[in-house]
Specification:
Blueprint (H helix, E strand, L loop, with lengths): L8 E4 L4 H11 L6 E5 L5 E5 L7 E5 L7 H15 L4 E6 L18 H12 L3 E5 L14 E4 L2 H11 L4 E5 L5 H11 L2 E11 L2 E8 L6 E9 L3 H12 L4 E9 L5 H6 L6 E4 L11 E4 L2 H12 L11
Parallel strand pairs: 1-4, 4-5, 5-6, 6-7, 8-9, 8-11, 11-12, 12-13, 13-14
Antiparallel strand pairs: 2-3, 9-10
Helix pairs in contact: 1-8, 2-3
């Protein structure tokens, strides 16, 4: 009797349930059934309510803090492995702990490396993620990593704005490569912000490398946390003669006073993806969904089709 490869099954961690439903709809499927049992002390246990034996399983969940979100992903990977799934793909629209990609001082962990190993040990046979904080994190994995770029959803939005005298800006030196990639496709100038920090999330000084006078500026970054850098950069650019300042940030972490800073800032708008759900609405925050991007790549993975067209940068 010929063996028929089962259709892939898509499951969601609770923190990414809304995005996972969008992805499943774009894929042309429905989310698989999974339940979570919770003990009184907060411990939880996922349970697949349908067979995954011999199937390709996609488990969707961003691992932003708190650590329960990471634990959900790890436990679901382990459950799929022990239920004899054929392939187990961890779909992490946002890969948490990515800022800990190296030892920047003595006696600290390399958290991104640790998380990579935990995902593999738990059962992931493939990783799909988007806009890692550092490209080299791909090398922390021994399994295949599909590192997608949010530029595939942001660039069409930017082109629709049809901004005159467009200039792409990076909020720091580390993001210059990303800024130059955007400028290449948009045929625009580039400006780099040079910042100095007293400590994490606290900027002591910022300077611009480049001219923004009479320009419509778009800041590009992989994530926005406290929004201190973005709002400071927007303020400096308006002071230096910019006509307008917008920001594109893939992952809206938006912790602390981020929402208040954005509302009171010189930013025209902040464009983000739905890799992390927003805690609240904001008149200045525009969400562009990445569901179609992930659904398309998941279909290509299932059919062993090239995904190179999704790597615009």
């Amino acid at each position: 009797m010929a063996y028929t490869v089962p259709e892939p099954k898509i499951f969601a961690c609770t923190q990414s349930d809304e995005l996972a439903r969008k992805i499943a709809k774009e894929y042309g499927s429905e989310l698989g059934k999974v339940t979570f049992s919770t003990y009184s002390d907060g411990e939880f246990q996922p349970s697949f309510e349908e067979s995954v034996r011999g199937a390709r399983v996609f488990i969707i969940g961003s691992t932003f803090p708190n650590s329960d979100h990471l634990m959900q992903m790890l436990l679901m990977l382990d459950a799929a492995k022990r239920a004899s799934a054929r392939h187990i793909t961890a779909v992490l629209p946002y890969f948490g702990w990515a800022r800990q990609d190296r030892k920047d001082k003595p006696r600290v962990p390399i958290g991104a490396k640790l998380i990579a190993k935990m995902l593999e040990v738990a059962g992931a046979t493939r990783i799909i993620t988007m806009d890692l904080h550092a490209d080299q994190i791909q090398g922390f994995f021994e399994k295949p990593v599909d590192h997608l770029f949010a530029s595939t959803v942001f660039l069409p939005y930017l082109r629709k704005l049809n901004l005159d005298k467009l200039t792409i800006a990076s909020p720091d030196m580390g993001g210059s490569k990303r800024a130059y990639a955007y400028s290449k496709f948009l045929e625009s100038d580039v400006v780099i912000c040079y910042k100095q920090r007293k400590k994490a999330n606290v900027i002591s000084h910022m300077e611009l490398i480049g001219d923004v006078t009479g320009k419509n500026v778009v800041l590009v970054d992989d994530m926005v946390d406290t929004a201190g850098t973005l709002t400071k950069a927007a303020e400096v650019m308006i002071e230096r003669g910019a006509l307008s300042v917008r920001a594109i940030c893939t992952h809206p972490i938006l912790s602390g006073q981020a929402y208040e800073r954005i509302e009171n800032s010189k930013l025209e708008e902040l464009i983000v993806t739905d890799s992390i759900p927003l805690r609240k609405e904001s008149s200045k925050i525009k969400v562009v969904s990445c569901a179609n991007l992930f659904a398309d790549v998941m279909q290509r993975v299932q059919t062993n089709t090239s995904i190179s067209s999704k790597f615009l940068m």
